Protein 1
Amino acid sequence: MSVIWATGYRLDFSILDIPVLDEWNYPRHSRGVTEHPGLYAVGLPWLTGQGSSIFAGVGRDAKYIAEHIARNPG
């Protein structure tokens, strides 16, 4: 398992070499779960709510992703 932690001033998903970006170059996802197995997103603006993109608010989304991974190992 790999975790990429990134902070910055603008979104840039050019590192992704798989077809998971929409027409605005934003990952297609449902609550942070992308259509590509094993690729998840947290910390994005409005991932699930107003606080999703701030450090103090990302916990709820991270908890959901961790529970999703635990339910779907592999």
Note: The CA atoms of residues 30 and 37 lie 13 Å apart.
Protein 2
Amino acid sequence: MQSLLFIFYPDWLSPIILWAYFILVIGFIIVVISENRNPIRSIAWCVALLSLPIIGVIFYLFFGRSMKGQQMISRHNKRKLLHNFNSKSESLDDLDLPSDCRQIVKLAHSLTRTPLTVNNSIKIFTCGSDKFKSLIQDLKDAKSTIYLQYYIFSDDNIGHTVADILVEKARAGVAVKVIYDHVGSFSSSRKFFKYMKDHGVDTHPFFRVTFPQLANRINWRNHRKLVIIDNRIGYIGGMNIADRYVVGQKDGSAWRDTHFRLKGDIIRSLVYSFAVDWYFLKDPDSALLLTSFPSELHNNCAMQLITSGPIDTWNNISLCFLKAISSAKRSIYIQTPYFLPTDTLLNALEAAALAKIDVRIMIPRKTDSRLLQLATFSYVTRCLRAGIKVYTFEPGMLHAKSMIIDDTFTTAGSTNFDFRSFENNFEANLLIYDREVNSRMREIFFNDLKECTKLKYSEWKKRPRPQRALESVIRLFAPIL
């Protein structure tokens, strides 16, 4: 590095640049240490900064910094939103919930202040064509408001269909607000979003990545998938807006996912989540979201919305997952496209399996990312050794993100079982405390098992050494993949 500096700079200037760079690196190391992160991760960043000139600094600028404690909106506006959109939490004394579920309810409320709601109904979609058929009809029927938020909003056939409906509704006087993730929707043309914006759809990218904010924004993505229509119908889950959820992948293989259609008091929590993100993008005074919520159900399906993001004090969803896994008595069933767990969650799953709880993890045989697949496979050996049953979904890409525990608790939404979802992305999941929903989700899980291959430890450990070595190397980058 020093010889390169002498080529491009005069002799007297090169030592100054070297000393300036050295001071910069020391400053970054002091910041890393002062943040009191996981010691292993802190040491890794310190080693990278010291041993990889220039590259270490660049990697830290893009992937190493923390957003903990930063405010998306003012505390005053957040309190106002909570008052406007969140109903009073149901009393646990009036509900027939196991003690373990009661603890999860209290934990989620402590983390996000979102209430437990009971007056709800839910419809489960595992087929993209069914979900979009329902969503399109609900959009067409909208009377007053449409709030739509997706990580990926593709300008393909299904994307144009949705966009045309949004434009039509905006022209008819419906207030249509759209948030899409700038990086997630990179492949969609500017012209596509400009078309909606020019025709009355209030459209905004989340964390637009431009210079000079590139390093500040590229690592923090909004992965949520929410739709709220007329403050009475909501959608949440793992499906983005893209043709692959309807027609499968280019090679003809399936794209399997899970999504929910909701009605009831939980809609208030969905609107609150959308409003926080919307107010972050725009001046709060410029967006007056409706506060009337029709009450037309008298069901008994208990659920909460749990959100998390890199600015939160705690890793909200990760903590709820940990609490749920640790409280399991009989079974833990997980579906995830990418399995890159934190050490804490992996230890919890291993402890459950070693305690003879039925722990099953379903991952795709082939994912849409070779790197993530290799990183995922690096964790399989340890899982199998602990007695965790691991299955690979064979028909195509398994993109569903769900966890079903015992007979009452289920969670699903946008959160993958990986570092990025737990620590770097803005995510949203439903926490559902309902035996009927749990039973339906278990049935879906076991139907998917029929199209899976169960991995055996004796065979898995015989994988070629070059593949195992590559998996181990890629695993080093798991926290930033």
Note: The chain has a mean pLDDT of 85.
